[in-house]
Amino acid sequence: MRVAVTGAGGFVGQAVQRLLASRGWEITGLDLAEAGLSLATHRVVGSLDDPDVRCAVLAARPDAVIHLATVPGGAAELDPAASRRINLDASYDLLVEAAAARPGLRFVFASSIAVFGEPMPAVVDDATPLAPRLLYGGHKAMIEQAVSLFSRRGQIDGLSLRLPGIVARPASPSGMKSAFLSNLFHALRGGQPFVCPVSAEGTVWLQSVACAAANLVHALDCDPAGLPVSRALTLPALRVTVHDLVAEVAQQCAVAPELVRYAPDPALEAGFATQPPLSTPAARRAGFGDDGDLSALVAAALAGLG
Ligand SMILES: NC(=O)c1ccc[n+]([C@@H]2O[C@H](COP(=O)([O-])OP(=O)(O)OC[C@H]3O[C@@H](n4cnc5c(N)ncnc54)[C@H](O)[C@@H]3O)[C@@H](O)[C@H]2O)c1
């Protein structure tokens, strides 16, 4: 199988590449820099909004596309034009061009729980309406619609997966508003104090990066008959309190949980730490999963840090 991965050099993209390579699948990897593309068979360095770059991505005639490249949430609010250019226009262009190059190809779009907006309702399930407030979530919701439309028209065989918070990303600046969740892992692993910008009682939906990559790769060959007409699935995730997360990371890193001090930022608390109970039967029926339990999630996230 030949798979094109946009944003392949990023946090999730590198885990996806590892999984695809372990199956012997041919990878065309696109990113802004070559550094993270070492596992790709074909490396395309450039920006998604350049038509020649998209053409180069599709030149290897992929059987499927995993579209991860994005302007993240924090960066999108700071630069709305860039969010429109990459998260909306170039993503739509990629859909059109992929459908033309290989009609009916499987197109997996990395959407986000940001499509639900804030505040979230008391429970989120497969019937929860989308009500994004951030541009990032709004543009994700618009591309979900395009994936759904193009699939109904038979132009692609598409699927949008709404990812929860993925841990633990590299310590470098990411432009992601949720990066504090990963920074917590880095601090405790290094035995360093950490000021947590959300409360201990806060609740978050999480997946390890290995679990997220497994779900994205599962999306390449899951049965379209089992997918909803929206072609969008909210992925299963573990819902944990920040207190329990801190306790588990501290225990697995053999450090004291008291290294963490809480100084909640109201905006981060509202946006990232008030996540209600989550029910995802459609994704579970289609074979997608979470990490199982908190101990397994933390172990996988720490293992991913190398
Ligand atoms: N990490 C999370 O917690 C999370 C949560 C929900 C959704 N997602 C989604 O999953 C996907 C992957 O997330 P991630 O954490 O790996 O992000 P990331 O920022 O680590 O990786 C994205 C990659 O895309 C590349 N990229 C950005 N703009 C580009 C452009 N114009 N042209 C080509 N490449 C470009 C970046 O260089 C980067 O390597 C994204 O679409 C993101 O919205 C992630």
Automatic annotation (TrEMBL):
Query: Which keywords appear in this protein's UniProt record, sorted alphabetically?
Result: Carbohydrate metabolism, NADP
- According to the entry, every stretch annotated as the NAD-dependent epimerase/dehydratase domain falls at 3-195
Q: Gene3D superfamilies attached here?
A: NAD(P)-binding Rossmann-like Domain, UDP-galactose 4-epimerase, domain 1
Q: Pfam families of this UniProt entry?
A: Epimerase
The UniProt entry, under InterPro entries, shows: Epimerase_deHydtase (IPR001509), NAD(P)-bd_dom_sf (IPR036291)
**What is the designated name of this protein?**
NAD-dependent epimerase/dehydratase family protein
Q: Which organism is it from?
A: Novosphingobium aerophilum
